[in-house]
Design goal:
By secondary structure, this protein is mostly helical. It is 57% helix and 4% strand. The chain has eight helices and four strands. Strands 1-2 form a two-stranded antiparallel sheet. Helix 1 packs antiparallel against helix 4, helix 4 runs parallel beside helix 6 and helix 6 runs antiparallel to helix 7. The longest helix has 23 residues. It is globular and about 50 Å long. It starts with 8 loop residues before the first helix and ends with a strand.
Length: 232
């Protein structure tokens, strides 16, 4: 039976911030004629604006008739994946996973912008969803998790589903920017899961062999006239 996870506190705050950014952007564009999309989104043209756009692009959403349904769809899946992740690893690790996924998505876009022209800007929190999804599945040490109580998944299932969905989006839209960004986020999410699963220094067994004594004393059975007894 499909079960919705309880909404965790940190993910709730993330959803509020992302939705509030969209509302503010729409109000500024509609009533003040101030377009913020070009400043917040990651424009694939080398410029000084990259210094903040690699951080702000998840909060950038174009004000178009179809932008609100797309945003709600992204936020819904961020809730479905992010809440179980936070319940398992805590708010700090969830924040780190979102940052890693976001930056990992930006890197291939920046690199590709030097060799490819005509790319669209990168915007929205979709890379966070892909990266967090892969990180959650791949971080389970048992090697398999029942996602939302319904879908048994292994790490390669999550990676294949994410790449396949992103590739289909690329085929239907023809925009390569979201596709390469999703690939970067998937790689970042998997790398972060490996980081979470690394053995800690306290859990590593000592590789030093036990110290052997050359001789062992056998106590007992000794009288004042008997010599010490040794076992070679």
């Amino acid at each position: 039976m499909f079960a919705f996870p309880p909404l965790s506190k940190f993910i709730r705050n993330v959803l509020i911030v992302l939705f509030s950014a969209f509302v503010a952007t729409a109000l500024l564009a509609r009533f003040a004629s101030i377009e913020t999309f070009g400043w917040l989104s990651l424009v694939p043209q080398p410029s000084v604006a990259w210094a903040w756009q690699v951080i702000t692009y998840p909060f950038a959403v174009p004000v178009t008739p179809g932008s609100l349904p797309a945003l709600l769809f992204t936020l819904f899946f961020l809730y479905l994946i992010g809440s179980p992740f936070e319940q398992r690893f805590g708010a700090k690790r969830t924040f780190q996973a979102l940052v890693v996924s976001s930056l990992s998505a930006a890197v291939p876009v920046l690199v590709l912008s030097f060799v490819s022209r005509g790319m669209i800007p990168l915007f929205g929190a979709s890379p966070m969803v892909f990266g967090l999804f892969v990180a959650f599945i791949a971080s389970v040490r048992a090697g398999q998790v029942s996602f939302m109580g319904v879908l048994p998944m292994k790490p390669w299932h999550a990676i294949a589903i994410s790449i396949g969905f992103s590739f289909l989006s690329y085929v239907t839209s023809g925009n390569i920017t979201p596709f390469v960004a999703d690939l970067g986020a998937i790689a970042g999410g998997y790398a972060f899961a490996r980081y979470l699963g690394r053995p800690t220094s306290g859990s590593r067994p000592s590789r030093k062999p036990p110290k052997k004594r050359p001789f062992e004393v056998i106590p007992g059975g000794r009288t004042p006239n008997d010599p010490p007894k040794w076992l070679n």
